[in-house]
Amino acid sequence: MADVIKSKGWNWQIVSDDCTSVWKNPASETFYLVSRWKNQHKQSFLDMGCGLGRHSVLFAKNGFNVSAFDISENAIERTCDWMQEQGLNINAKVGDMLNIPFEDNSMDCVLCINVISHTDTNGVYKIADELKRVLKQNGECYLTLASKDTWGYKQNWPVVDENTKLRDEEGPEYMVPHFYADYDLISKIFKDFEILDIKHIGTFYTHNNQSYESYHWHLLIRKSNV
Q1: Would you call 25 helix, strand, or coil by DSSP?
Q2: Most buried among 65, 132, 133, 177, by the most CB within 10 A?
Q3: Using CA atoms, how far apart are residues 219 and 196, in angstroms rounded to an integer?
Q4: What residues contact residue 63 under an 8 Å CB cut-off, 6+ apart?
Q5: Could you state, in order of their start, the residue ranges of all structural domains in the chain?
Q6: Which tens digits make up the pLDDT trace of 107-129?
Q7: What mean pLDDT comes out for the span 183-205?
Q8: Could you tell me if residue 14 is left (phi over 0), alpha (psi between -120 and 50 degrees) or otherwise beta?
Q9: For helices 29-39 and 54-61, what crossing angle results, to 10°?
Q10: pLDDT tens, residue by residue, 51-65
């Protein structure tokens, strides 16, 4: 495989710990996943690119054995502090999603929301291989990928490859790579998994008096003999 762009994480140091922030509250779909994976008697859970730990806390409170990693040392420190404040246990590490810092066949379920789009095309293929490596047989992963229909793909940002741009605006994602996918590309990347569900979801919002349309693919995949 060709070289992969060097990973660059969010600048979490400029993100506050405000309890009302989206980064301190679980994504709505994770409550369904808690129920689904508890019903399947899954135990080992990996929060991939955990950020400030909003999903690590949720799954730990629901009885899962939680592991987590992020490329940001600041994010891991704050996740561990929050877990300790809640009286919860976590196995947290600083690590790169291109080389997931956990053993083969060690995870029943993996969550990576707004994470694996932060690399280039070769990187996403590498991450798919890493997910296959760490998941147990019949283990499941829920992930999101930025869509080529979203506003960011249409911006005049520096181009890395035909599917990837560097976000060229101030904020926690400054110069962080953003990979954008369509359905055909997703089918190729995850050809070694069983795709259980795939949705194309749009979010509409206004920031600084400007309207945005943000689209993401939401996938539920299973490691199996497909």
Answers
A1: coil
A2: 177
A3: 8
A4: 38
A5: 24-222
A6: 999 999 999 999 999 999 999 99
A7: 95
A8: alpha
A9: 40
A10: 999 999 999 999 999
Q: Which two tokens stand for residue 139?
A: 């283990």
pLDDT tens sequence across 177-186: 999 999 999 9
Q: Rounded to an integer, what distance in angstroms lies between the CA atom of residue 56 and that of residue 82? A: 10
Q: What is the DSSP string of 77-123?
A: HHHHHHHHHTT---EEEE-BTTB-SS-TT-EEEEEESS-TTSS-HHH
Is the pLDDT reported for residue 8 higher than 90?
A: no
Q: Half-sphere exposure (CA, 13 Å, Cβ side) for 183?
A: 5
Here the tokens at position 216 are 């993401």
Please report, for residues 4, 36, 45, 148, 159, the alpha-carbon distance to residue 163 in angstroms, rounded to integers and kept in the order given.
13, 32, 30, 8, 8
CA Rg, the chain, in Å?
A: 17
**What mean pLDDT is predicted for residues 71-100?**
96
Helix (H) or strand (E) run with residue 44 in it: strand 44-48
d(CA 88, CA 202): 34
Measured CA distances, 206 to 119, 211, 213, 224 (Å): 26, 4, 9, 41
Nearest to 147 by CA among 195, 206, 218: 218
Q: How far apart are CA 166 and CA 152, in angstroms?
A: 10
Fold (topology level) of 24-222 = Rossmann fold (3.40.50)
Instruction: Give the global pTM.
Output: 0.92
User: Cα angle at 205 between 46 and 179, to 5 degrees?
Assistant: 50
Length of the chain: 226
